[in-house]
Structures are given as structure tokens and as C-alpha cells.
Design goal:
The protein is mostly helical and 98 residues long. Helices cover 55% and strands 6% of the residues. The N and C termini lie far apart (31 Å). 15% of the residues are buried.
């Protein structure tokens, strides 16, 4: 959901299709919001760190799925979350460029 907001606002069909293609890839797993495990963890993260509901849900899902890192470009979230390493997507892309 988070990845599609900008392409939808900008009516960028090409970018929307790219996001859908990446999210439908073999190395991407989409988890349901679990009211007994993920939701309570998100609630705790939201209360402890002052995260938005969306950010708290993303972090809780990553923790629940035992992800090694969280990748994004949200400086506010990165500053507040200590439970999982935060990797900036922009930095990662720059490192991959020749």
C-alpha cells in the first residue's frame, strides 16, 4: 500500500506497474495483518516510539517476519526505530550504481 501512494497520486501508471511487478516477485512475501501477533506489536511500537500507524505496522511486520533489515526512505522512522536496522533505499540504490 505504501509504495503505491505516490504513483496513484501522480497518476503514473508505469511506476504503479513497476511497484506491482516488484511486489509480485519471487523474493517478496506479503503477510496478512495478524490481530494477535502483528497488530499488538505495532501498537506497542506506536506507543513507545510515536510512529504513525503505517510505520508501526511496517516495522512490526518486518520484526514478525524476522527480516534482517527494514528498507525505506523515512528519516523520522529510521531515527525512532532501534529494533531492526534501517537501510535507506536511496543509499542502497547509489551503492548499486556503476
Amino acid at each position: 500500500m505504501e509504495l503505491l501512494v505516490k504513483p496513484l497520486r501522480e497518476q503514473d501508471d508505469w511506476e504503479r506497474e513497476r511497484v506491482n511487478a516488484v511486489c509480485g516477485g519471487f523474493n517478496v512475501r506479503v503477510l496478512d495483518l495478524d490481530r494477535y501477533r502483528i497488530a499488538p506489536m505495532a501498537t506497542d511500537l506506536r506507543a513507545d516510539h510515536g510512529l504513525s500507524l503505517t510505520d508501526a505496522t511496517i516495522v512490526a511486520t518486518a520484526l514478525h517476519a524476522n527480516c534482517d533489515v527494514l528498507i525505506g526512505n523515512d528519516e523520522r522512522c529510521a531515527r525512532r526505530v532501534r529494533e531492526i536496522p534501517y537501510v535507506y533505499l536511496d543509499d542502497l540504490v547509489k551503492e548499486m550504481q556503476p
